[in-house]
Amino acid sequence: MSEAAVNQAHWVVGVDVGGTFTDLFVLDEKTGQARIVKVPSTRGEEARGFMNGIAKVTGNTGADGAQEIATIVHGTTVGTNALLERKIARTGIITTRGFRDVLEMRRRDRPQTWGLRGSYTPVVPRAWRLEVDERVLADGQMHTPVDLDQVREQARALLAEGCEAVCVFFVHAYANPANEQAAVAAVREIWPNSYVTSASEVLPEIREFERCSTATLNAALQPVVGSYLQRLDGDLRAQGFGGELLIVQSNGGVMSRQTACDVPVRTALSGPAAGVMACAEIARASGFENVITGDIGGTSFDVSLVAGGEAALAAQTSIEFGLVVRSPMIQIETIGAGGGSIASVDAGGMLQVGPESAGSIPGPACYGRGNTRPTVTDANVLLGRIAADRPLGGGLLQKLDSGLSETAIAQHVAEPLGLTALAAAEAILTVANARMAGAIRVVSIERGHDPRQFAYMPFGGGGGLHVCAMMREVGVTTGIVPRYPGVTSALGCVMADMRHDAVQTLNVALADVAWPALLQRVDSLAEACQVRLDSAGVNFVRVDEVISFDMLYMGQTHTLQVPVKREQLNAAGVLAAFEAAYQHAFGRVLQGPVIRVMNLRYARIGRRPKFDLAVLAPQGDGRTTPLGEQQVYHQGQWWTAQRYERLSLPVGTVVQGPAILEQPDTTVWLEPGFDGRVDKLGNLLVERTA
Fold this sequence. Notes:
31% helix; 17 helices; alpha+beta; five-stranded mixed sheet; disordered N terminus; Hydant_A_N; Hydantoinase_A; Hydantoinase/oxoprolinase family protein; Oxoprolinase-like
C-alpha cells in the first residue's frame, strides 16, 4: 500500500463478533459521519464473517477494498469460546518437582458446594505436566539451580506426545526468575514454534495456582488466537488494508495484534468489556456518572457497574470453574439468560430459564431451524413484543414463525404447568427478568451500591426488550437505551484507549521498602508498558499512568488495592494512602499491626483521539408519527401499542408506553406507565410515570 493511500485512509472500524451477528461500527474521520453494519456470523470461521462485514463497509471485495480503512479495532470472543468449548491447543507444563498438581488441586474448591462428589478436568492432563529439579525460596534466594538437561529432556518428551504449546512454571519465580528464565531459553532453543510461555513473564505475582492457571491458559490459547489473528491480518492486507489492527483487552483497553498473540489470555472478556467502556462514555456524555450496564445477547446476560464515570476493575475472573485468569479486567457478572435461553419445567414442577441456550444455530423455535424447545425470544414473539412478520437484524434473518413459538411454549411449559400459552410466555419472561435482576443486585447491592442511585443502560440485541422490567425489578429510576444497542460493543472498540497493565510482587513490610529501588522498578514497568504502546503504531492525545499497591495488615489474607501518585512514592505518602483507603473500605484503621506491601501494580494508558458523540444524534426533522399499531400481551391483558421507527425520532421526542420502537439492531418495548425521551445524543431516556 502506497504512502498516498495510507494518507487517504480515513475510516475507523470497530468489530464485535457475536454468536448470531458480526457487528461493525464505522466512523468516517473525514466527514465525522458514523454508520452501523451487521452481517451474519460464521460459526467456527469467525474470520470469514469478519471479512464479509469489511466488504460490506467498503462496498468493494477487490484487492484494494480495505485501503480506505485507517484502523480496525476488534473485540474477540475466540479465546473465551475456545476455553469454554475446550477447543484449545495440546499443551504441556514443565514445573518444579513436587508441583505438577497445582493446576488440578486449585484452591481445594468444588464445582458444587453440596454433595459427596465434584468432577473437574484440568486443561492439561497429568501425563503432560512434567517436573524438573529446581527451587527458589519465597524470599528469592536460590536453593537449587535448575537442571537444564532435565528441562530439555522433558521438552522433548512433550513434543513426542504431540504438544503444540508449553508453559514453564516454577515456584517462587516471581521473587527470582533466574531459574525460569534459563529453562525457558533452553526450551525455546528446541521448541519448533513460538508457543512457549513463561509464567513469570505473564504474571510475576505471588499465589502459585493463579499464576500457573493464567500462564497455562495463555499457552493453550497462543496457537488458537495467534493463528486466527494472523489469518485475519493476512486477509485484510490482501484487500489493501495498510492500517493498524488492534485488539480489545479484558481491562477495557486495546492492544496491538502482536501483543494479543503473545498474551491472548488478556482477551478473555474482550467483547463485553468493549460494550461497558462504550456505555460509560455515552452515559457520562449524557450527564450520568453512575450507571449499571446490562448486555443481553443470545446466550448470556453480562452486567457491570460504572461509578463516578469509571468502570470497576477486578483482579481476576473464572471463565468457568477452575479456569482462573488473573489479569486486570472489567468487573462483569455473567448469567446464562439471553434471547436463546431455553425454558423448561424440571422434575419438581419448577419453571427454569437457562443456562442452556439454543444459541444462533439452530436458534429459537421461531427461527424455523429445527429447535422445538421454547426460548426467551419465543416468549417475546408470542406476546407481540417482537413482530414476527418483520425480520430481525435489518433483514438478515428471515421472518419469524410465531406459530412455532406457541407450539413450543404450549408443549414444554404451558401443559406441564396447567397454564395458557400466553400465561406461560409471561411466566418465562418473569423468571428470566428475576434472574437478570439478581445479577444486577450482585454488582450493586452486594458491593455496597444502591441501584436506585444509578441509571440502567441495556445494550445487546435483547436489552431494549427488558429495560422497563429491569427498572421495575430493581427500582432504578432512569433507563438509558443507547442509539445503537445491538452494536454498542463495536462502538466501544472505536472508543477504547490503549492500555497495558503490569504487576510485580514485593511481599515486604512497609517499613522495609527500599524506595530508590522501588522507583527504579516503577520506571522499568513504565518502560516495558510504553514499548507495548509504541508497538501498535497509534497516535495518542496523551499518555497517563496508574500506580497502586496491594496492601494489608500482617495476619490478614486479602489485600486492599491502594492507588497512589508518583509524588506519594515514599513511606509517609503510601502510609497515608493506605489508611485513607482502609478507612473508606472498612470504616476504621487498625493501630499496632505491621502493614505489608504485597504487590506493585502499574498501568500505562495511551489516550486515543475521541470523536464527538453528537455524530450519533438524529439529524433533521425526522418523523414522530407512528408506523402503525401492534397488539402486545402484558400483565394478563392485550394492549394496543404504537409502533415507531426509532432512528427517525428527532431530539426531544417523547414516546408514551405502551409502545414498540424498532430499529435494525434491536427492538425497544416501552411498557404502560413508562415514557421514553430522545436526548441530544440520540439515546432514549426511559422513566417511570406511574
